[in-house]
């Protein structure tokens, strides 16, 4: 059987060869995503910007630097988490991704998440949140844990928005600081569920004696 790392590498190679939408025509590099493949937390952004396009790595520009500084506040380094995007090639002039581009790219992130099996998905910005939760509204839902399909999703403002607006920056930091408690809550739910799913021990069947 292929290891997690091998499966993720296969996806990475497919992303690099991808010609399923127009975005590959102008992009310099694909940005498949990177990080700790055993991470409990993954961060999912929208699409690569200029620096990401040049380097082939997610969140390595100013927005990424801000995200890293905020992670330090909760004792995390970039290498502790996995970071990816919904869209793997940069949209020209950083325009919003189009619905057909999101649709074309969808299988890649879907497969990556199936392999990574994160406990918590922190969505960065509105696009990423709406990918998991179409009815979401970022001004209402940021900083709230949402169960979307099989995933625990925690929407926060995009760090690029935080760079432009100090109110968003404050909200982003406050939400990031909630992550350890959110993770604890999820771990508690998982433990409770495992307990409830435990087979009844011999001798306890029947009258419970
Ligand atoms: N913004 C994103 O949404 N993703 C990146 O990788 C960089 C900036």
UniProtKB/TrEMBL annotation:
Keywords: 4Fe-4S, DNA damage, DNA repair, Hydrolase, Iron, Iron-sulfur, Metal-binding. It comes from candidate division WWE3 bacterium. SUPFAM superfamilies: Uracil-DNA glycosylase-like (SSF52141). It catalyses: Hydrolyzes single-stranded DNA or mismatched double-stranded DNA and polynucleotides, releasing free uracil. Its EC number is 3.2.2.27. InterPro entries: UDG_Type-4/5, Ura-DNA_glyco_family4, Uracil-DNA_glycosylase-like, Uracil-DNA_glycosylase-like_sf. This is Type-4 uracil-DNA glycosylase. It holds the Pfam family UDG.
């Amino acid at each position: 059987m292929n290891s997690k790392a091998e499966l993720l590498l296969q996806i990475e190679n497919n992303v690099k060869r991808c010609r399923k939408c127009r975005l590959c025509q102008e992009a310099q590099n694909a940005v498949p995503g990177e990080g700790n493949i055993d991470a409990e937390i993954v961060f999912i952004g929208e699409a690569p910007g200029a620096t990401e396009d040049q380097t082939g790595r997610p969140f390595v520009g100013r927005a990424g630097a801000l995200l890293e500084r905020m992670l330090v506040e909760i004792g995390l380094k970039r290498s502790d988490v996995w970071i990816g995007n919904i869209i793997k090639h940069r949209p020209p002039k950083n325009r919003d991704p189009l619905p057909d581009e999101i649709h074309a790219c969808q299988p890649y992130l879907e497969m990556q998440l199936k392999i990574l099996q994160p406990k918590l998905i922190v969505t960065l910005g509105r696009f990423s949140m709406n990918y998991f939760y179409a009815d979401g509204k970022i001004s209402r839902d940021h900083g709230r844990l949402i169960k979307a399909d099989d995933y625990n999703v925690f929407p926060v403002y995009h760090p690029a928005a935080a760079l432009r607006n100090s109110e968003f920056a404050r909200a982003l930091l406050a939400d990031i600081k909630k992550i350890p408690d959110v993770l604890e809550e999820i771990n508690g739910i998982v433990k409770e569920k495992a307990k409830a799913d435990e087979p009844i021990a011999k001798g306890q069947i029947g009258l419970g004696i």
